[in-house]
Automatic annotation (TrEMBL):
Record GO terms (molecular function): RNA binding
Organism: Adonisia turfae CCMR0082
Domain RNA-binding protein Tab2/Atab2 C-terminal: 135-280
Domain RNA-binding protein Tab2-like N-terminal: 4-112
Signal peptide coordinates: none
Source organism, top-level taxon: Bacteria
Name under which the protein is recorded: DUF1092 family protein
Pfam families named among the record's database cross-references: Tab2-like_C, Tab2-like_N
Length: 285
């Protein structure tokens, strides 16, 4: 995948001398495996008159110069800023993608909201601005990619320390310290079994994998959230036992601070994975 950075460009709860909100660019390197550690940290305040793609491009160039490397991809989660961010990244020849896999950035942003911004002159206490985006209708998977079976499993968090040694075709992870869970926490997951495991995993790898969710009601479904607001129907929970298993998965996910995984295999006896993604459902803003 190459080097992936995470970016936020938005107003902060801090007023300048003209009583206008200050804007800020945040850039950091994103986690792609359980062994990653963040090294790049770049922040820059801008006035509301500097909110444009040219200023953002200059900030990204400064971060590249400071870090000594250029990313191959930049992830961002604010839907409403996508035109400006993509324009700035295009000028630099860097791919920019809407994603809810910006966990390193969100952890850093939460720390700044709690410990940094309140210490700044002009700070205004209040809720963080919400991310606004259109609501999308859940879409079914392409017929050729639907799994034949799925099962709920769980692993102690400490088991993921060996993940770099697992045989995985496609996948992505993050250090569990980012999620604030201990080594003995049981992390739930969904195993999907398919005769077309590799094509399914390859298709999933082209998405920005966010998290798994369950819709319970007249129509109950196992859902995969990707990108900034895309929803895919992974399985219909059309039998009571499937619905109960999915509800147990959701309860276990709650116990693990919303950390979970999805894996794709040819069959239950396989010792390798066509795909494996560690994920966490969380709020952004």
């Amino acid at each position: 995948m190459g080097s992936v950075w995470e970016l936020d460009f938005y107003s902060r709860p801090v007023l300048d001398d003209n009583q206008k909100k200050r804007w800020e660019v945040l850039l950091c390197d994103g986690a792609q495996s359980v062994a990653d550690s963040s090294r790049i940290r770049y922040s820059k305040f801008l006035s509301n008159k500097q909110v444009n793609s040219i200023e953002l491009q200059q900030a990204i160039e400064e971060a590249i110069e400071k870090s000594g490397e250029s990313p191959t991809q930049i992830r961002f989660f604010r839907y409403q800023m996508q035109n400006m961010i993509k324009r700035a990244c295009d000028e630099l020849g860097v791919s920019a993608r809407l994603s809810r896999r910006t966990l390193t950035l969100q952890t850093w942003l939460e720390d700044r909201q709690e410990n940094f911004y309140p210490q700044q002159p002009g700070y205004q206490e209040g809720k963080s601005p919400a991310t606004v985006q259109p609501v999308e209708v859940a879409r079914p998977l392409p017929d050729a990619l639907i799994g034949q079976r799925w099962a709920m499993v769980s692993l102690p968090a400490k088991e993921f320390a060996d993940m770099p040694e697992w045989e995985i075709g496609f996948g992505e992870a993050f250090p569990l310290e980012l999620a604030g869970i201990g080594p003995d926490t049981m992390v739930p997951g969904i195993l999907i079994f398919s005769e077309r495991a590799l094509p399914l995993a390859g298709w999933m790898s082209g998405l920005e994998m966010a998290y798994l969710d369950v819709q319970v009601g007249q129509i109950s479904q196992l859902l995969l959230e990707t990108g900034s607001n895309d929803t895919w129907i992974m399985a219909s929970l059309n039998r009571p036992e499937l619905k109960q298993e999915a509800e147990r998965f959701m309860a276990a996910k709650e116990e693990a601070n919303q950390v979970h995984f999805v894996a794709v295999q040819d069959n239950p006896d396989s010792e390798s994975f066509a795909g494996f993604w560690l994920m966490q459902k969380r709020s952004f803003g």
